[in-house]
Amino acid sequence: MSRDLDVEITVGGGQIVGTLALPNDASALVLFAHGGGSSRLSPRNQFVAEVLRQGTFGTLLLDLLTPEEQRDDEAAARLHFDIGLLAGRVVAATDWLVAERLLPSPQLGYFGASTGAAAALVAAAKRPATVGAIVARGGRPDLAAGVLDDVRAPTLFIVGEHDEDALVRNEAARHALAARHKDLRIIADASHLFEEPGALDDVADLAREWFENFLMLGTEAQPGAP
Fold it and tell me: What predicted TM-score, i.e. pTM, was given to this entire model?
């Protein structure tokens, strides 16, 4: 059983909306930061979120833009590259979760995709005590290059084998990241959207394992972690 709630979070530009799911046995919560013009309805992130919930994680799938901003972005494709704006929304949602006492544990995780991965990294640098682990799927961490040496949360980068530009960007980000625990995992035969059979299953399994190791158990319990 779980509590499924549609939530609204007040931000400077109005309100952003999200879908919060909290299994009764949730041990931790993961916030999903979408990118590239996507939304909380992204089938790929919904699939990963469902796998995490089966592993007793709560999830918050969040639209980082207000409805008005989303309409503007569909026309101009500009706001989903405004990492400062998107990161501010992730921070606002993080602070809201803390204020509403909705976190099952002291720290939460971030799952970021595309430009949402950059927003998650910037937000993690701003809330180091609250963010316990990060997973970036096909992300643009290069857009957060200025804060990578401030990110302490264990971070996993997941990239498709055939997504050559992302491979270069994510490998460079892994080297630049200040976090002690960091890794880059490559999904064989996968492209940027992980549409190949089994590719998204691999992404979800890697994400669940990373969050279990570093969010539920904590880094101190993982002496052999990368």
Answer: 0.91
